[in-house]
Structure formats: structure tokens, C-alpha cells
Specification:
- It is built from two helices and nine strands, in the order ααβββββββββ.
- With 192 residues, it is of the alpha+beta class.
């Protein structure tokens, strides 16, 4: 192969690599008169249909309700904030795909901040009805609203090696506090 043949092959390969980039740029900026680059409309008319774009709306579905029975709070104290450890004495969880109880060791490590809000750090072991274990952590924030109602939200993360529940390892979730007398209750939603 001589230099001239190699040069022609190299130019053909470079053009094949550059063509998608030029097409993408043409779609992004449109066609300048006489540039030879097709307009977005021209490119779209000959291109394969694009997949439907996500509309950017947040969607969720109910995952489970977590009902926690609290043990006595232990105030640890600290510089500038108050640290409180609340053991979880028990509880239940139930949703369309799983159900069971909360088992020890479980608890909530709370930091009460000077502004009256609290940082939540919930760690619980969930045991399903079929005796599988799921570790759940949930960080969040709680504060009392001007109306006197408690606002609390958290972000649960699940870990398990149980084959039936491996799908939980990939769930992005949000927990919404729900007032129930004598209990701490969260309705947990999976973000779709």
C-alpha cells in the first residue's frame, strides 16, 4: 500500500467518524444558508424515530408502610448540638411486594440542631415473613411546622443478599412521615 492509497483510506475513515458529530451539531445549531449541513427538520425527516423522551416529571409508587415502636431515648449531648439515640423496640412493615417485622439491632441516631430541626439517621433490620433479612438506612430531616405538625422526610436505602428481594438494592425511595399515636410511621415510595 502506497502513501496515496493510505491517505485515501484514512480520509474515508475520518469522514465516517466525523459524520455523526456533524449531524449532531447540525441538529443542535440548525443550517446556515449555503453551509451544506442539513437543518434539524431535514435530518429528522430522514432519521429513524427517536425514543420517547422522559417528560421530567417525578413519579413514584407505594413501596411499603414502616411502623416503628420506639424505645426510651438516650441523650448523648455534644458541642453545639444535641445527639439522641433512640432504640427501635420493634415494629412492622407492609407493602404490595413484602411484609414483615423490624428486628434488633435497630435504632435512630438523631442530631437535634440549634434551629429546632433534627437530622435523622435511621438504621433498621427488616425481617420478611419468609425469614429473609433486609438492612435499611434512612437519612432525613424533621422539624415542627408553624401549625404544630411534625414534618419529616427521609431517603431509605436498602441492602439485601436475599435473591427474592435483590430488586430492593436498586430502589431510590422517599419516606414520608405519617402521624400515628404512639408510633413513628413512614409511608415509603419508590421513585420511578
Amino acid at each position: 500500500m502506497n502513501r496515496r492509497t493510505f491517505g485515501k483510506l484514512w480520509m474515508s475513515a475520518a469522514a465516517a467518524v466525523a459524520a455523526p458529530a456533524l449531524t449532531a451539531r447540525a441538529i443542535a445549531v440548525g443550517n446556515d444558508a449555503g453551509s451544506g449541513i442539513p437543518t434539524s427538520a431535514e435530518t429528522q425527516a430522514t432519521a429513524a424515530p427517536a425514543p420517547v423522551a422522559d417528560d421530567g416529571q417525578l413519579r413514584s409508587e407505594f413501596l411499603l408502610e414502616l411502623v416503628i415502636e420506639r424505645g426510651p431515648a438516650n441523650s448523648v449531648g455534644s458541642l453545639g448540638v444535641s445527639r439522641i439515640v433512640v432504640p427501635v423496640a420493634g415494629g412492622t412493615f407492609e407493602g404490595p411486594k413484602l411484609k414483615g417485622t423490624i428486628v434488633a439491632p435497630s435504632g435512630d441516631w438523631i442530631v437535634a440542631r440549634p434551629d429546632g430541626s433534627s437530622v435523622l439517621d435511621l438504621r433498621v433490620v427488616l425481617q420478611t415473613e419468609d425469614s429473609q433479612k433486609i438492612y435499611m438506612t434512612a437519612r432525613g430531616v424533621a422539624f415542627t411546622q408553624p401549625s404544630g405538625a411534625l414534618y419529616a422526610r427521609n431517603q431509605p436505602v436498602f441492602e439485601t443478599g436475599a435473591a427474592k428481594y435483590l430488586w430492593l438494592n436498586n430502589v431510590v425511595a422517599v419516606g414520608v412521615y405519617r402521624p400515628v399515636p404512639g408510633k413513628v410511621t413512614y409511608r415509603i415510595y419508590s421513585v420511578l
